[in-house]
Each structure stands twice: as C-alpha cells, then as structure tokens.
Prior knowledge:
2 copies of one chain form a homodimer. The longest helix of chain A is centred in the first third of the chain and has 16 residues, at 3-18. With 365 residues, the first copy, chain A, is α/β, with parallel strands linked by helices. Chain A contains 12 helices and 18 strands. Chain A has helices at 3-18, 54-61, 87-93, 113-120, 131-136, 139-147, 177-188, 197-203, 233-236, 249-255, 276-285, 297-305, and strands at residues 31-36, 39-45, 70-75, 98-103, 124-127, 151-159, 163-165, 192-196, 218-222, 243-247, 263-266, 269-270, 273-274, 290-293, 311-317, 325-326, 341-350, 353-361. Chains A and B meet through strand 15, strand 17 and strand 18 of A and strand 15, strand 17 and strand 18 of B.
Amino acid sequence: MTAIADKTYMARALKLAEKGRGSTFPNPLVGAIIVKNSKIIGEGFHKAAGKDHAEIVAIKNAHSSIAGATLYVNLEPCCHTGRTGPCTEALIKSKIKKVIVGIKDPNKKVNGKGIRQLRKAGIEVTVNILKDESYYINDTYFFSQQNKRPFVTLKLAQTLDGKIATLSNESKYLSSKQSLKYVHTLRANSDAVVVGTQTAQHDNPSLTVRLTKGNNPYRILLSNSLKIDSSLNLLKNNDDYKTIIASTEKSLKTFSHATNKVITWSLKSKNRQLDLHDFLEKAYQFNINSTLCEGGAKLASSLIVQQLVDKIILVTVPKIMGKGIESFGSFRINQLTDMVEFDKHYTFNLGVDTILVGYPKWGKA
Amino acid sequence: MTAIADKTYMARALKLAEKGRGSTFPNPLVGAIIVKNSKIIGEGFHKAAGKDHAEIVAIKNAHSSIAGATLYVNLEPCCHTGRTGPCTEALIKSKIKKVIVGIKDPNKKVNGKGIRQLRKAGIEVTVNILKDESYYINDTYFFSQQNKRPFVTLKLAQTLDGKIATLSNESKYLSSKQSLKYVHTLRANSDAVVVGTQTAQHDNPSLTVRLTKGNNPYRILLSNSLKIDSSLNLLKNNDDYKTIIASTEKSLKTFSHATNKVITWSLKSKNRQLDLHDFLEKAYQFNINSTLCEGGAKLASSLIVQQLVDKIILVTVPKIMGKGIESFGSFRINQLTDMVEFDKHYTFNLGVDTILVGYPKWGKA
Lengths: 365, 365
C-alpha cells in the first residue's frame, strides 16, 4: 500500500468520525475503515457512549471476511473494558493483518498499550498517518488529557466599542441571526456551556441547541451567591437533566430544595470568588473536555485574569453603544505590553457581524 | 459618437483627474480629454490651485487644432474668474464643437451657468456621463457644497474591547505598521486632520504625511482650554504653515504669543464646550471640504452625540486591554435601539488589524 493510499483511507476514516460530532460525549470522535485488495469492505464510526466503538462497527459491517485485511482508524484502538469490550481483542480475533493508526490515544488507560497488544499478537501497526488531522478532530480531548482540565472557549457578543449590554443590562438580540446560529453550532460542538450569575439572571438564556442540529451540551451556572430566580429557563427547561449548578457548599445548601433535578458541584472559594481551577478540575473529572463560556463580563474577565482561556470568539456587531457593560471590564493592566495578545487569530463575517477567533498567547503566569 | 465611447473617454478623464488627489486643495479633482476623429489629441488634469484648470491644460497640450473637436471633462467648466480665467471663455474661443460633462458643478458661482454659456455660444453640451463616478471622485466637495460644512470622517484606533489608550493614556504604536500607513493615506486625501486636546498632549502627533506620498493636510487642534505644551510637534513642525488652532477667543489671547506662525480660529462656546457647528462652519469658509478626526475619545463622542460624523473608520487591533480609555466613553444611550447603526459598512484586514468603514445612519436629531 502506498503512503498516498494510506492517507486517502485515513481521510475517509476521519470523515466518518466527524459524523459523531456532538453525540459521543464523553468519548472522542473515531472512524474506521477496513480495506482488502484495495477495496473498502467495511466501515463505521462511533455514534455514542455505550455503543460500539468505530472498529467494532466496521468489523460488524464488513461484507466479506476481514482476515488478512487492513484497518484504518484515526485513534489508537482501546485495550480496556469500559461499557464495551476492548477493541484490540476483537481485532486480534478477527485475524486482521495490519492496523493503521492516526494518532496514539493519550488516555492513561491506553497510551500506547493498545498498539503494543496488537503488535504482540503479530499484527503490523503503523502510527501517525494524518497525525495532525487526527489531533485536530479531537483537539479538546487531547487538550484535556494533556492539561487535566477542559479546553476553555470564551465567546462574547459585543458592540464595536466593546460593550456587551447597556448600563441597565439590556442585551437580548444584540447580534444578527446568522451569528446566533453560529453560537448554537458552537454549543452543539461543546461538552458544556458556562454562564455566570449576571448573564443567567439578566438574559435568562436556555443555553440549548435550537437553531441548528445537534445535542444540547451540559449547561453550567457558575454562581457564588446563587442569587437567582428559581424560574430561570436554565432550571425550568431541564428535561435532559443536563443543568449543572456550580457554587459553594453553603450557597448550594440554601438553594437545594428548588433544584432536585439539577446536578450540583460544590466548589472551593478563593478570595471570596469561586475557585476557577477547582471548577475546571471538577469539569474534567466529569469527563468534560470542552467548555464554551458565554459570559458575562465578570466571568470573562476572571478567566482572562487567571489565563484560563484557550480560545476567544468575539462576535462584534456593527453598532456603537458608548457607555455600557464592558466586555472585559474587570481586567486591568499596567502598561500596553500587558495586553492580551494572540498566538494566531482570524476574522470572518457573518451577516453584518464580524467574528474574531483568537488563541491567546499567555506569557508570564 | 456612441454612448459607450463617451463613457470610455470620460473614464479616461476621471483617471487623469485622480492624479491630482491630495494636491488640488481647495479645488476639486478635474481631468479633461479632447477627442477629434476618434483620436485623443490633447489631455490634462488640474494639478494645484492657481495652476491651469484641466480644460486649459488639455487645450494647451493639444498637438493639433481643436476646432470642431469634443472635450470630455468630469466637472462642469467654470465661468468665473478666480486665480485663473474662466474655462468657458477659452473653450468658446477654441471653436470646440462639443463638450461632454460628467456632472454639474454645485458651486454657486457655476451651478449650470458654465453649461448655459457654452450652449449660448453654439457649443453642443451633454451632461451626466458617468455621473456617479464623477460624483464620487469629488464626494467631499459635493457634500460640503450641499451641506455647507466639510465631510467629517472619524478615525479611531482601538483594541478589540474598544479601548484607545490605557488609563494612564499610553497608546503610541497601538496599531500595526500597515494600519499606520493606511492612516497616512487617509491624511493625504483629507483637506484637514483634527485632534482634541488630550490626543495632542498625550500622543503628541505630528499629523503629517510620512509613510506614503502626498501633501500634508491642514492640522487642526480643537482645544477649549489650550492647556498644551508649546513644544508639541503640531506647533513646532509647522514649516508649511498648515497648523490651525481652534479655540475660544479668551484662550487664544493667552496663548497667542507662542503661536505666531499658527493660524487661529476663534470659536463660539456652547455649554462650556467649543461649538462644533461653528467649528465646521469656519472650516467650510476656509474651503475645507473634508476633515479627518483622529481622536481622542472626548472629541469622538461629542461628534457622535451631535450626529456630526459622516464616516467612521475603526482600526481594531487584535488585543484585549480590559479597563482603559473607552472609544466613545462620553456617549450615553438609554436603550439598545439608541445605538449608532450604519447605513452601510464594510470590513477588511490590514496586517493583523481589522478595519471597519461605516456610514452612520442618523435618525431623529
């Protein structure tokens, strides 16, 4: 098999993997293809946690014997028994000849062990075919495995002059329909969305996916005081049991009677604020690989100050507000060189709005 | 002559006219072409005030007799004696047969009179060939003739979160080199640049054209108090005698001994602020058709509040400042619908910066 053919088949596996986007929580996106005599004889992707892994789907779908065939899979096959049996075992049993892997699985239960098991059984294994692509399709998964916390995307919708709401906290429907749809896509592709008290109370968002296809992410309210109405959409519309309230133990105690269906996380405090590191630690333990923070300004500033933002998405509407609630109003610098800059960034237009996507460059901590 | 040929020759006249950009103050850009037997026998453009008008340049440059020829000119020929004689007279003398005009000159000394004089002398005159293009090449000239005040462009360089300087007024070199060059082009194409006290004092700009070719615009310091150092670049670098100080009579009196080379305008006050309408009236009387306001925040906000901005150019650098001097910090609204919106706007990238150009939609005054 030529290197080009290997890449072509891996690209197909990646395309299949992509079909699971938004549905596989907490698992990564994986696609698999079985090739024999230069023909695809079976393929599949991982649809949801608890369902067959991609390799097993491909084996089951194969329309002829896979003995002597080659399997392409974008992530190292698992070797542990979770809700399903280990894929390595099934592959060894199937008498497959060769396994081509996009990238090693950094999960400590796998982390090269899957590859070693296959090789020990006499299966030829090649790793790092379309490695970059295999990384990016599961970038937040790799990030959280490496950093022991979820990837944090901060999204704010603001005016040209950097205001997210009027002084009286009016902000509903600030951005265009196209931008709102984009935000729903971001939600569908995130494990969890996070908002602070002010945003929950004033905007009363549902934080569900409505304007595009996709599953709802977990909805996390990060609130120290929990001074919120119990009739908020976040609490009311919780038929999928995906609302999480993260607060202090003390605040949760007084609030708990109204939140029986809601998941609660008790967080540590630091300087009378919720400890964001503890929050991200809890989210990681909950298997959340990616969080989309949708404001408000106070939470955004706290994340920035603590250098806990991995990606910023600024939706800027072509309007000028003058005085108002500032996007990053609690962030303070001493000199121009202290500004937050980006490693890389790009902009594009959605309707009349301009979207900036930037990856902050964090220097001295 | 076909209509298409007429447009082609007029397009050539417009292209010639463009060569005068930045040099013709206070005159508009004009180009002229003389055509005989489908051949261009002479052409020219207006280079500077006091020099020959485009029609005269074309007549003088003609390499054969222009009797019986057709002249194309983007603006109605003048019929009054200014620093040069009336063009209509020269055209009648030359026995030209036909004159094709892009657009009527709205200047009250012309305003159709030039066309009438030519017709009275038996010359065939066609008007409104490439009328829109003939308007836009001199849009600020037409604007000021119609509105009796200069066209006001407001340019601000700000961070993503709408800050133009740190709280301690640090802002030098906020934007990229490409954006600075763009700003110099804007200057070269404006009759005057305007700054307020804070910007003059803290940034100490020269407001000259250095990063691109072109003439310096008039440099106007709009300052109520005139609490500025007499060593500012604006005052020091004034070999071209183009620095103008606009202030109250009272402030000018105490400041005059240091400003002998500087032009001064005495302005009315209104609510303890300089009267911006009076300022624009004075600028108009000075034949300034276009002003580029380069800040700061206070002047920008005042212009916005008084709905005196015709075009906004926001240079946004991909950096986050947090607390700082807000771009439009003195502008206040009561509800979302009071925000400044645009009739039309577009964005483009320069280096790492994003430039927005917008034409504000002014409703209720």
